[in-house]
Amino acid sequence: PAMEYAGLAEAAAEKMGLYRRDPGGWRGCRRTSEVAVSWRPSAEFAGSLYRGEGVLPGSPQQVWECIKPVAGGLRTKWDQNVKDFEVIEAVSDTVSVCRTTTPSAFMRIISPREFVDVVLIRQYEDGTMLSAATNVEHPLCPPQPNFVRGFNYPCGCFCIPLPGEPDRTQLLSFFQTDLGGYLPQTVVDSFFPASIAGFYSNLTKAVKALKV
């Protein structure tokens, strides 16, 4: 159902735009030199929607090179929360169904997870790049025995050029993930802000390394 996947991807991208434009209700929960993390209750599931906002020391192209959701991309190298990333089906030039696996985390309290998402890539006229995703089912991707199946609700990243600063990029990201399994809510609530801070820290290092 390629049309269906494309429609879900489009809807996820629209949600990203809504989250970006809607300043209301966010509560700060973590701040580092690289990112400010805030959250509010998710409208999609019984969990939280997290927002990360930071400025990275690289051009939008360099930042995008590090985060773009492609097979064999850089993300598995620098992102400690991404063990493997594969494209299950290329629906179009800009939409694909992908499987991401994550290693165990949080002192092994969180066991390895797998996520199957439809992912959309878009470039806007001002040079902003968007990657948006949401969970889907795919016949080529039944749940695997050694993983807990988690679910990403509309999530993604905006790489936003900063006028007059070609070597700096604003990265605005939204995460809303149901990790699945039986995790205490306290674990989930402390995992995500720490994980997002780690994401920005490791991405900053990856962007710097790419520039060398």
TrEMBL record:
Source organism superkingdom:
Eukaryota
Q: Does the keyword Transport apply?
A: yes
Q: Which GO terms describe its biological process?
A: cholesterol import
InterPro entries found in the cross-reference section: StARD5/6, START-like_dom_sf, START_lipid-bd_dom
START domain: residues covered: 1-212
Gene Ontology MF terms in the entry? cholesterol binding; cholesterol transfer activity
Q: Which UniProt keywords apply?
A: Lipid transport, Lipid-binding, Transport
Q: Which Pfam families match?
A: START
Record function comment: May be involved in the intracellular transport of sterols or other lipids. May bind cholesterol or other sterols.
What name does UniProt use for this protein?
A: STAR5 protein
